[in-house]
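Listing 4. Sequential folding, example run.
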Amino acid sequence: MRKLTKRMKLIYENIDFRKQFSILEAINQLKILSKVKFIESIDIAIILGINPKKTEQNIRGNVFLPHGNGKNIKIAVFADGKEAIQAKKLGIELVGMQDLLTKITNGEKNFDIVISTPKAMDLVTKLGPILGPKGLMPNPKLGTITNEIDKAIKNIRSGQINFRNDKNGIIHTMIGKINFENNKIKENLIIFLKNLKKYKPIQLKNNFIQKIYISSTMGIALNITKECLNLLN
């Protein structure tokens, strides 16, 4: 068995993992136990009662977090003409068509979201093997296939995040930074869950949201299921 570091030993000595925490109590514990020299992210993992092998049960959407998630989102935009000009005016560096495709094919990775005009999607689909596994393919449901490039960029910068379940039916996303005020982290979390609830598949008979955990980048996951579900009822 691998020997625990002093930091992890401290965490395991001070946390009862059998307990379900209130949201604010969990956030406070994560802050107390954060001993690293950088500002950690606050993440949630939501175990859904879906069957991810069934296409109609897979979840994909977006939500505006009222306080943002603290991440500096880097955007790549496939566009030309006036839409490309709009993107550049808003400070986007990765803007183009065939030239941008070539950059990404050759290993460019400095972006978190890809936006495309409908016209440019013939090019973008060629990047399916690269963008698809990372969940970066533009999608009209997420507002990332659009002719309103300026609006899409502003939405993302104002706190819009995209989410989808993984192959195990779990949604992982970042809802803030550990230096956010506790109530702001909680508000982001509740808004996210309320929005997620709207995506429950019609044919799903099981409980849609089964377990909810909150963690920091280098910390451990704390179960906050009970209070979250009570707040959603």
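-- end of first protein; second protein begins --
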Amino acid sequence: MTVDLVVRNGTVVTPAGASIDAGLAIEDGTIVAVGQSDQLPEAARTLDAAGNVIVPGIVDCHIHNREPGLEYKEDWESATRAAAAGGVSTVVGMPNTDPVIDRPEHLELKFDRGEASAHVDFQSFVVVTSENLERISALDEAGALGYKIFLGSTVGDVPPPNDGEIIEAMERIRETGKRLGFHEENGEIVDYTTEQFKTDGKNRPIDFARSRPVIAEREAIERMCTFAEETGAKIHMYHVSSGSGAEAVARGKDRGIDVTAETCPHYLWFTEDVLREKGNVARIQPPIRNADERDRLWAALENGAIDSIATDHAPHTAEEKLVDDPFGNTWDAISGFVGLETEIPVMLSFVADGRLTLEEWVYHHSVRPAQIWGMYPQKGSLQVGTDADVTIVDPDLEWTLEDPSELHSKHPVTPFEGESFTGKAVTTIVRGEVVYDDGEVVGEAGFGTRVDVD
């Protein structure tokens, strides 16, 4: 038997453990064998992992690819090119585009654009507002991965439903069997505090962080957990930034609520001091928190309150980020920065520091996100019969991000500029095709395809 591709001579890591001098065989885009290198079949092409670590393809379920409508910031092609270069084999786009993804025809437009130009596989969330409760079932039938409500102000100014409408949305979404996620900041608290800060002339980058207090995040999580407890809906908390928020998630889990949560590499890596050091480049919402909140967030990741890792990859132009005047009036800047090419290096650096094992990293960054959003085991596993999505990393490579312009997004503004890492993706395989290898994106735009979900 000869297969299409064999990957040999690596350490295969899944949450179940590690296997040295191992690899896998791929035929027609599907994994047909996983085992010791000398037991794998012959292949038309062999890829030597050279002792590096082979893991299930990394799944990032929170990116802003900006298409349709905001392609000047990013698009499916550039975002997924960055994903391929970063070792990410599946991405999920957010719905705050132009038009917003709030009806089946808009979702179909987003899918069509992805099919035309994506380098890796993809899906999309749809937004729930006061205006589209009646479309929830139709959006499910159109193939949405899940639903999102923006509870607080965000890029795109998508207005939140009121609490009664949220409860109705949960009831409708429960019937689809899919999950509803939240940008979980209490908008009334944030809007009130922001106006106070502006009136008082507090306009430094650190003031932006203080204008979105932790209580806004914690209260939103507690409230949505209460609604989910009442309705039986499955819910998710995106980009949890604080230990206080994560502890609220844990309380919900303890009450038997089906609530999951993600955090982002920047919340685990930085403290709010980065806003003093790098200014508005590090401005994001919810904001990066103080050291105590970061420590408690780490504890939540370790004890299972935080399920998964995602980036909230959110490109903006240098002008929008005030790159030429990073400590200028923060209210003139915009929130968000890129993350697809730094997420693996950040997490592998934590592995190198002993904060996580490789097995734990794979669980949080591949297996668990795929499970949460109904893509597992087709994505997020190395099981025979599943999509041959594979990320190969060099866990010992020491490097520094000296020149963000070498990243693949249209506008690679990032607070990780100048940061040093241990570990990096060296090869990305999507459904059996090598899309990134040896420092180059080698896959073709349009190879990526929509992930089908029930």
